[in-house]
Automatic annotation (TrEMBL):
One of its GO terms (biological process) is glutathione metabolic process. GO terms for cellular component: cytosol. This is 5-oxoprolinase (ATP-hydrolyzing). It holds the Pfam family Hydantoinase_A. SUPFAM superfamilies: Actin-like ATPase domain (SSF53067). GO terms for molecular function: 5-oxoprolinase (ATP-hydrolyzing) activity. Residues 216-499 form the Hydantoinase A/oxoprolinase domain. Residues 517-690 form the Acetophenone carboxylase-like C-terminal domain. Residues 12-195 form the Hydantoinase/oxoprolinase N-terminal domain. It comes from the Bacteria.
Amino acid sequence: MEVLVEKETKYHVGIDIGGTFTDLVLSDHEGNVNRAKALTTHGKYTEGIIHALKKISKKMNTDIENILSKTELFINGTTIVTNAIAELKGDIVGLITTNGFKDTMRIARSARTNDYNMHTQTSLPEIVKRSAIVEVDERVDSNGKVLIELNVEQVKERVKYLVEEEKVESFAVCLLWSFKNPQHEQQIKAIVQEMYPDKFITISSEIYPVEREYERMVTTVLNSFSGQAVEKYVDILEGELRERGLQVPVGLMQSIGGVLSSDEAKYRAINLINSGPVGGVLGANNLGKLLGLKDIITADMGGTSFDTALIKDNQLGLAHRAELNRFMTGLSMVDITAIGAGGGSICWIDERNAPRVGPESAGSFPGPACYGQGGENPAITDVVVALGMINPDLFLGGEMELNKEASVQAIKNKIADPLGWDVNQAASGLYRIVVNSMSNAARSVSIEKGFDPRDFTVISYGGASPLFIAPICKNLGIKKVIIPANSSVFSAYGLLWSDNIRSFAQTVNWNVNLGETEEINDLLNGLVEQAKDALHSNGFAEENIQVIKEGDFKFSGQAFEITIPLPDGNITADDKEEIIAKFVETYERLYGEGTAWEGSDVIMLNCRVTGVGKTVKPKIKSNQNKVKGEVTPHKFSEVFLPDINEARKIPTFVSQGIYVGDEICGPAIVEAGDTTIYVPENSTISKDEYLNYVMEIR
């Protein structure tokens, strides 16, 4: 007789550390999902994670040790690098560069602060002191040939000076043309590690080995600036989780949209920038595939920021040479536009006596006034509480009670009374200000990049986004919104959809019109082997690895380039014509019809290979057997509707009373656990078979 053995439950855990909340999602192989939110504990991020784990274990009637011992995948999206660079709180960095290039960092190349007034320009933040930049005698030419050997004794003297006189805590090394020949950088790294084995060091030929000296130098410096903070964070996190039963390593989300092992993340700290919001974009793309949606605009509004991205044909848009706190880097990352417009964004009056919102945030402490933690300045959460759009007794599903009177008083004292308005007028105006700001952000990822937002569906998530998304969509002419079942923790949920990714690039300067294909194919195949080897070393079999090839192209004589995909196999003579045609098509979509440089050769400056290690994705349960019920309001609430500037008594529905197929007509409020949805007049909302909310905007 066959004996049936019950399969042991295994968990996948995703944790997104935001500016206000730390979100946790736990999924099992059957598609069951549990979630928890805890206030982020700045400076001690692991405390917020442990608090979230305690909350979820309590919900599941178990303990942290039982959950972690059964966890086979643990992915973390963290703001630690983003915060270090934004707040300029990192290591004291010593920079070693080629003789004659000490001032590259100070000369700089970054966006101007004001395009219309040359006198308002300000210097870049000082992330490495000039006195902590030293030059060494060495020289390599553009072909990688050594012209001047490295002066080893001089290097030792300069390294000693940086430690003893400048008190540097980490080193960055960026030499001229080192991406063509890394020999001298590798020698300096060995010297530093021998003299000061406890010091963190980054060399540019390992972190960003491509052309453009300034971006390469900045990327290298920023990696060293934030490296030890990541190293400390990862060691503490893995240590505490291991003590509580976790037996697998922690994976860290990268800005490019894939997971990096904890050991690799300690050296490639800069890859973790923006890692939390990336999870949401990954989740939106996979949800879109499930629902048959190819063209998506994401809208993620949490406690600190509003993040938006565009997905075309289920392909995530990537930004290359990303700018971080005005530093132009060589990083590639998922193209996300972020503005300071979250639930904690502070409302204030500027010197022109005009109301403003953000970018400063109240954070998790003291938080908005309604949190009752001593905050006196009104935040966007106070605005929607004062308007009656959020039930103070059901915030975070009832886990946290809000003080509406504190919200009203803060808006009255700081905004309404100084402007001579009543509280409803002030709150309504602040709501519309933040809606317009978020609409402009969504325009920047769509219209400004040659896409019509009316052709896209919005996927709206984050704890605050569903309260604002309908008027945003009206501004953009978008007709359909999907609000995921786990909206408030969707970025954490999206982490579970991530693959392992390793990306390698090389400068080639290949003339597509005239160049032979053999040499470029050899270079690409070498990068393919590097990517595969990196994934093999992390346990991925050949059949679970996908390879993606790209190139950075420009017309001959241009300064900068745009990225387009390359063929999967070797490039042939016939492929060259298709590559040029694709480049011209993309160029004219970005810059306008007729802008292509007719007759000019096309140059591929860099080639890039990304290896993708495919992972097991969460199962999403279908609820097809549910039948349409007679949906009735939970209650009627007095709400001041900011989009029509009028008070109304409107129906409020609770998620548990809404079944698949039910349709609700606005104006209405839907209380969906730890998020709230505003359905404006003439719009409708319903639940699909996966328990997502589908809003039709009219």
